[in-house]
Amino acid sequence: MKIILASSNVKKAVEIRDILKTFEVVCYSDMIPAFEIVENGKSFQENALIKAKAVYAKIQGIMNESFWVLSDDSGLVVDALGGEPGIFSARYSGEGSDVANLQKVISKLQEKGINESRAYFCAASAIVGEKGDYCVHGFAYGKVITTPRGQHGFGYDPIFIHTNHSVTFAEMDRLQKNTLSHRFKSLELIQILLRYL
Ligand code: ITT
């Protein structure tokens, strides 16, 4: 069954394709023009469902086969920052660039005189199709540091170290991150769901 991905984040899409390698995953913007989706939910789950439903509504009329729309709403939750950036991870610095967002987390920790804090990544994966709407979560627990390391991955990967590891997600290769990440955990559950729906 075809999976249409409701995401405009190219690096996120690469990870999702890698993880769901046995499925046919097509980005919605390869089928219809990309459009803006207002993510005004109050949780990762609400935002994931907003994205998947928005794309489902646009794509439904042009499909002549069964399909699911899949979305991912994710972010970094830092203990010492009271849970920030959380659902605002993509636009924490206002301008929305990965580097500026990461720098803001580092600056806020430094303002507190802290050079590391417990943190976790959360991914809400939603699927919307003719059989209904579903959402599951995956988590990756660890800590953030104030000295970025590594060139792989995206977003906050250079400052996140997974529990029981000493390198950041950005120092890991794709395969290693993709067997530990919040996205991998939530997509594991999605694959189980898809088997039974
Ligand atoms: P779409 O909504 O189009 O999918 P987006 O980048 O806006 O793309 P989100 O609203 O889910 O996606 O925001 C997620 C942000 O959280 C993302 O921009 C990163 O800054 C951060 N993030 C999520 N997963 C991450 C990961 O695996 N590694 C590093 N940072 C991550």
Could you please describe the fold and organization of this structure?
- With 197 residues, this protein is an alpha/beta fold.
- The protein has a single domain, classed as Alpha-Beta Complex (Maf protein).
- It is built from 5 helices and 6 strands; from the N terminus they run βαβαβαβββαα.
- A 6-stranded mixed beta sheet has the order 2-1-3-4-5-6, sandwiched between helices.
- The longest helix has 16 residues.
- The radius of gyration is 17 Å and the shape is globular.
- The model has no long low-confidence stretch (mean pLDDT 96).
- Bound molecules: inosine 5'-triphosphate (ITT).
Helix content: 25-40%
Order of helices and strands: EHEHEHEEEHH
Total helical segments? 5
Number of domains: 1
Number of strands: 6
Which value, in Å, is the CA radius of gyration? 17 Å
The fraction of residues assigned to DSSP E strands is 25-35%
Strand order of the largest sheet: 2-1-3-4-5-6
Structural class assignment: alpha/beta
User: Could you say what the CATH architecture is?
Assistant: Alpha-Beta Complex
Mean pLDDT: 96
The profile of the biggest β sheet is:
6 strands, mixed
CATH class category: Alpha Beta
The third-level CATH topology is: Maf protein
Small ligands present: inosine 5'-triphosphate
Which regions are unreliable across 5 or more consecutive residues at pLDDT < 50? none
